[in-house]
Write a structure and sequence with these properties.
Blueprint (H helix, E strand, L loop, with lengths): L1 E2 L5 E2 L1 H33 L2 H6 L1 H34 L5 H13 L2 H11 L5 H24 L4 H9 L4 H29 L3 H7 L6 H11 L3 H36 L12 H26 L5 H5 L13 H35 L5 H9 L6 H11 L13 H24 L2 H9 L4 H12 L1 H17 L2 H6 L7 H9 L4 H28 L7
Antiparallel strand pairs: 1-2
GO biological process, one term: transmembrane transport
InterPro entries: MetI-like, MetI-like_sf
Protein name: Thiamine transport system permease protein
Length: about 525
């Protein structure tokens, strides 16, 4: 029996049983399909030829370049917002938190269409700006969490010694924030490098990343060896990004422990108002594409919304827009229930391993995060190859879409639940144990009540993410089970003004749902995860 720092005896067998469920799900619905498609591609040969092609390395170069550019823009835009959230006490900060978080949880196809409405010609900068808008919230919230705890006395001392505000920031504040910035940058780069819907809509046939090229080779060209080679490259990049992110996250957590209590916020002084102005400019900039899309949906009055009762111009859809919305709601509900269950179990395992100071806890954490970065197309195609071997042949089952969505949502649930479970005062757990409560009762009576609101937050965000999931769903959904994001992508790829009007109207509906959920979460005031 192992003993954690709170003095509670933790059963290795019980911990193993809890871990078996999320790890088993990960093995069956992620590792097995991915390994199967890679083995199939490698067996067919041609991988070395693919990797030797100059076109492939140009593709890699563009993927890395646009991800690096979007990451840089996210950091530059996110730092002033982080200062606003961490160091100021101004009216409307709750609204700021909602606005910056909305793009992060909006469906990628909606963000892509919003920027296409704003920048009809698309192009590299449209992709970079769209991906950056996704991730400003990651930078702002991650950096603000550490910035809140920085001791102002070091900055005041530098100013007293004659350092200017820029010099104080670059010489004192920025080095102290480095762990949080590095943690956020690793995750943002990962999200941008594996972006699918944004690149598909804004890049078209001209600009492709590894993710969209894997889709093209798998779905249209049936080039499994080429898709396998590209998936191997992408998987290597994902593991590297996740490993860097884990190291930087650990440094950020160490810095937070060393900093202690949070500094009280106050009104900005002197030159700080320029930073506040820059932060509000970023917030307004995030609103512009979304507002443009919503305005575009009403350009012809309510025609687009009325058309959602039909199947589009010349039968572009096999079901009506409202049927697609019902499919989305049903699949997202099922996916959320699965993901919350698995994510909570995984969080319990990770916290227990950390309390028992198990060395491989970061390896397990990284394993749970892998589905965030591996091509959804690779996973989806792997399902079609492997799942016929399971009882009932899930390949033709309506359950396949929520299972794939749960795979994407579970890491988000883990990132929301982990910091809350870690922050529970171990003295409360120790007191419960002293009074005779066993490990299971301690979890039930202490941990679960304190993590309850975060569990609700995880469920809410999991729902909106599943509602807008596009990558895996676009590959797995049958025409009669298409979700709203899949229907939007099909509408914008077909001719006819009616199709465009329907797509913009459907996007607006998704925006309304997303804003409502984010506003409720902000009202509850539960931290939205760690990155």
């Amino acid at each position: 029996m192992a003993r954690d720092r709170a003095g509670l005896r933790t059963s290795p067998r019980g911990l193993a049983l809890i871990a078996l469920v999320p790890l088993g799900f990960l093995a069956v619905f992620f590792v097995w399909p991915v390994v199967a498609i890679l083995r199939l591609g490698l067996r067919e040969g041609g991988v070395l030829d693919t990797l030797a092609s100059p076109d492939v390395w140009q593709l890699v170069g563009f993927t890395v370049a646009q991800a690096a550019g979007a990451t840089a823009v996210s950091i530059v835009a996110g730092l002033p917002v982080a200062f606003l959230l961490a160091r100021t006490r101004l009216p409307g900060l709750g609204l700021v938190r909602v606005i910056i978080l909305v793009p992060f949880v909006l469906p990628s196809v909606v963000v892509g269409l919003a920027f296409r409405a704003l920048l009809p010609d698309g192009g590299v900068w449209a992709i970079i700006l769209a991906n950056a808008s996704f991730n400003v919230a990651v930078v702002a919230r991650t950096v603000a969490g550490l910035w809140t705890h920085l001791d102002r006395r070091a900055e005041d001392a530098a100013r007293a010694l004659g350092a200017s505000r820029p010099r104080t920031f670059t010489g004192v504040t920025l080095p102290a924030l480095a762990p949080a910035i590095g943690s956020a940058a690793a995750v943002v780069f990962l999200f941008c490098a594996t972006s699918f819907g944004v690149v598909l809509i804004l890049g078209g046939a001209r600009l492709k990343t590894l993710e969209t090229e894997i889709y093209l080779r798998t779905v249209e060209l049936l080039d499994l060896s080429g898709a396998a080679a590209l998936s191997l490259l992408q998987l290597g990049a994902v593991v590297a990004a996740l490993s860097i992110g884990a190291v930087m996250r650990r440094r950020r957590e160490t810095a937070l422990r060393l900093r202690g209590q949070a500094e009280s916020a106050r009104r900005p002084a002197g030159g700080e108002w320029w930073v506040v102005a820059a932060a509000f400019a970023v917030v307004v900039a995030l609103l512009v594409p979304v507002a443009t899309l919503v305005a575009r949906s009403f350009q012809s009055g309510l025609d687009g919304y009325r058309a959602l009762t039909g199947i589009g111009y010349e039968g572009s859809l096999d079901i009506s827009g409202f049927d697609a919305a019902r499919n989305s709601l049903a699949a997202a509900t099922d996916a959320t229930l699965i993901a919350v269950t698995l994510g909570t179990m995984a969080s319990v395992v990770l916290v227990s391993l950390a309390r028992n100071r198990v060395r491989y806890v970061e390896v397990v954490d990284t394993a749970f995060m892998l589905p965030l970065g591996v091509s959804a197309v690779t996973v989806g195609f792997g399902y079609l190859i492997t799942l016929d071997l399971l009882p009932g042949d899930l390949r033709t089952s309506a359950a396949l879409v929520p299972l794939a969505q749960a795979l994407v949502v579970t890491p988000l649930v883990i990132r929301i639940m982990l910091p809350v479970l870690r922050s529970i005062d171990e003295r409360l757990r120790q007191a419960a144990a002293t009074l005779g409560a066993g490990p299971w009762r301690v979890w039930r009576e202490v941990d679960v009540p304190m993590a309850g609101r975060s569990l609700g937050t995880a469920a809410a965000f999991g729902f909106v993410v599943a509602l807008g999931e596009f990558g895996a769903t676009s590959f797995l959904a049958r025409p009669d089970t298409a979700t709203l994001p899949v229907a939007i992508a099909r509408l914008v790829s077909r001719p006819g003004e009616l199709n465009n009007e329907m797509a913009y109207a459907a996007c607006t509906l998704l925006i309304v749902v997303t804003v409502a959920v984010v506003a409720v979460v902000e009202r509850v005031r539960v931290p939205v995860g760690e990155f």
